[in-house]
Design a protein that fits this description.
The complex is a heterodimer. Chain A is an alpha/beta fold. Chain A is built from 7 helices and 12 strands. In chain A, the strands form 3 sheets. In chain A, strands 1-9-8-5-4-2-3 form a 7-stranded mixed sheet. Chain B has 13 helices and 4 strands. Chain B has a 4-stranded antiparallel sheet. In chain B, helix 3 crosses helix 4. The chains are: A alpha/beta, B alpha+beta. At the A-B interface, helix 1, helix 3, helix 4 and strand 11 of A face helix 1, helix 5, helix 12 and helix 13 of B.
């Protein structure tokens, strides 16, 4: 019997059709095989606007299985409106369990932050990427930047860092600080703060990056060297909160948000909502370890 | 201020969506019917299908209703829906010479084979606000239809015929530049793989067929007005329906229906010459779903400009034209600025504060 499918709104598991999901998985395998290399992919339209996390969604929906536990954050927060919206979409399209607990999640999708809590080898971290091309600020043509990557010709990038130092006395790059992956490709780590950059290095987890609008996928496989670009005498450094404690927990070793209250008073609070909740509940989440954080600890 | 539960975000979304419905329906007018949108908002439906990259008048109409008439938003909804569809067949190449013509005009000759046929067009409608449309009744519609039918002599209908295109005439005289052998003629599918540059013509035409009309118009216009040198003549502009055929598993060609398209062939003088040193014409091609003269004309202009790369002219720059006329991507990204950016902002704030500190 011929079924009348017209105007039916049934969607398959994880929304995207199977052939395209397979294509995305193939491209992800390629991305993992060539750390930091941008792999072009089909990037089908999602019911979420371009620039609102479509690349991250492609990755999540292509790799998610019914037994996965999904967490999503935006600016470090589980509560951000867009994170809520995407969580709801993924949950509706897959029926998977969702969580706010960083440790419990098997797939964590993020916009602009890595969790403060350490990631394990059983976790996949998925980044929403607005601009996958780290060289775009020095070369506007895609045709040329691909060639530059091919030839590992990063001179323009180094010159731009040098110029910043000459003008301002420091490398003025904020979030999305360019990194070199596995000693080969310069990669845009998505606009995570410098605070998070060292946590990409030699990480146990898989880090997958999806840039939907620009149609590129790339990856940092587990235990891969990730180095921020720096000179011998001008070093990369993370954001300095000058020992300011979080006003709710008194904790000093976390990325902080600056809040302004109605009375004009300024407060600093831990940015990572789940990390904050855990500390407030007197739990002791295990944090990433890196030289920059260790240095903070020693100074404190 | 401070932290609110995840529930807060979810509730806010729910309320926002409820308000969206409320503001659409608060006057409690009679519901817009999909069939009304398909038939009475024909141009809008065509535009949404073209930019939405899916030929489906009824679903386009639903999207228009859902988007409260925002055509770009409606096209976006349709594109997202398209992602869920399995691709079972690839159609045989459309042959627009078979078009069942509703409109066919040429600006390059006074008379063309089959004649100039204005067809349904707003070109010569005087743009005077017709306030009578406000009180149009079903009786009015019936009477208009009756009058129209009365003008047709059913016993004296002309036979359906196909005519040569204007470019066929020019071609016979050897006036049209032959296909460039060095040109990349690879057939790619931009919906299955990301576009790479320099992009072959197939990719460029596919991108433009899905482009936002306004964006294509602005870039096409720029080339004519002063930031370029293409000022073409409309060789032929056609609007009508063309048959779509697919090959079934046993290799038989099957007719599966007809789609409404607009097609433009824009003639430009080229810098290249034939063997005798005489300047030749080249053809810029435009095609899209629905009736949209502006879009296909500008697509035709840009097809020509993109075949002559020149980084000093915006309209002759592939990456500039193709990336930035993609309306759905542009809309999404420009609107993403509304998302919170306080982490990235904190990071640059930190840098700037340190720089100020150093100056002290």
């Amino acid at each position: 019997m011929i079924q009348e499918n017209k105007f039916s709104t049934q969607y398959r598991f994880a929304f995207i059709d199977e052939a395209t999901k397979r294509e995305i998985r193939r491209k992800l395998l390629k991305a993992i095989s060539i750390p930091g290399y941008q792999v072009p992919y089909s990037s089908p339209e999602m019911p979420i606007a371009r620039g609102w996390g479509t690349g991250g969604l492609h990755v999540t929906l292509a790799i998610i299985g019914p037994k996965d536990i999904f967490k999503i954050i935006d600016q470090g927060s589980d509560a951000s409106v867009n994170a809520c919206n995407l969580r709801n979409f993924v949950q509706t399209m897959t029926g998977v369990e969702t969580t706010l607990d960083t440790e419990k999640a098997t797939i964590i999708q993020t916009r602009h932050r890595i969790t403060e809590e350490k990631l394990s080898k059983d976790q996949i971290f998925v980044y929403q990427v607005p601009q996958p091309e780290p060289l775009r600020s020095v070369e506007r043509y895609e045709n040329k930047t691909r060639q530059m990557h091919g030839e590992a010709d990063y001179a323009k990038m180094w010159v731009s860092l040098y110029e910043q130092f000459v003008r301002h006395g420091d490398i003025m790059l904020g979030a999305g600080y360019p990194v070199k992956v596995n000693g080969r490709y310069i990669m845009a780590p998505s606009p995570i703060p410098r605070w998070d950059i060292p946590n990409l290095n030699n990480s146990e987890a898989i880090h997958l990056f999806g840039a939907g609008r620009e149609k590129r996928l790339y990856a940092v496989p587990p235990y891969t060297k990730v180095e921020p670009l720096e000179f011998e005498d001008v070093k990369f450094h993370i954001e300095d909160f000058k020992g300011t404690p979080c006003f709710r927990t008194g904790y000093k070793k976390a990325f902080l948000d600056e809040l302004y209250y109605d009375d004009g008073s300024k407060h600093y609070v831990i940015n990572d909502s789940n990390f904050l909740d855990k500390l407030a509940n007197k739990e002791t989440p295990i944090q990433h370890e890196n030289d920059y954080l260790n240095k903070l600890e020693n100074e404190a | 201020m401070g932290y609110f539960a995840v529930k807060g975000g979810a509730d806010a979304i729910e309320n926002s969506l409820a308000l969206l419905d409320f503001f659409r329906l608060k006057e409690a007018t009679s519901p817009l019917e999909i069939s009304q949108i398909v038939s009475q908002l024909r141009i809008a439906v065509g535009k949404v299908m073209s930019e939405g990259s899916l030929y489906t008048p009824e679903y386009a109409a639903i999207a228009i209703k859902q988007a409260e008439g925002d055509l770009l938003e409606a096209a976006f909804i349709l594109r997202a829906y398209r992602t869920t569809l399995e691709r079972r067949f690839v159609s045989e190449t459309l042959n627009t010479r078979e078009m069942f013509i509703r409109r066919k005009i040429s600006a390059s000759f006074r008379e063309i084979p089959g004649g100039q046929i204005l067809g349904p067009s707003m070109d010569y409608s005087q743009r005077i606000l017709d306030v009578k449309k406000a009180i149009e009744t079903s009786e009015d519609i019936k009477s208009i239809l009756k009058t129209f039918e009365g003008k047709i002599d059913k016993n004296n209908l002309t036979e359906i015929s196909h005519h040569d295109k204007v470019i066929d005439i020019l071609n016979k005289d050897g006036l049209i530049q032959k296909g460039n052998e060095t040109e990349d003629r690879k057939l790619v599918d931009i919906t299955r793989e990301a576009i790479r540059f320099p992009a072959p013509r197939s990719a460029r035409l596919q991108m433009m067929a899905r482009s936002e009309t306004g964006a294509l118009m602005s870039m096409g216009y720029s080339s004519m007005r002063g930031f370029g040198s293409v000022h073409p003549t409309v060789g032929e502009l056609r609007y009508g329906t063309v048959p779509v055929r697919i090959k079934d598993p046993r290799g038989r060609i099957r007719y599966i229906g007809a789609i409404e398209v607009t097609e433009a062939e824009m003639i430009t003088e080229t810098k290249k010459t034939n063997d005798d040193g005489v300047a030749l014409f080249s053809i810029g091609y435009g095609l899209c779903f629905g009736q949209n003269d502006t879009k296909v004309i500008c697509m035709g202009i840009l097809d020509t400009t993109l075949r002559n790369p020149d980084p000093s002219l915006p309209a002759n720059d592939q990456e500039f034209v193709l990336y930035h006329s993609e309306g759905i991507e542009a809309m999404g990204f420009t609107n993403h600025l509304k998302l919170p950016h306080y982490v990235t902002f904190q990071s640059s704030l930190n840098n700037v504060r340190e720089a100020i500190e150093r100056k002290k």
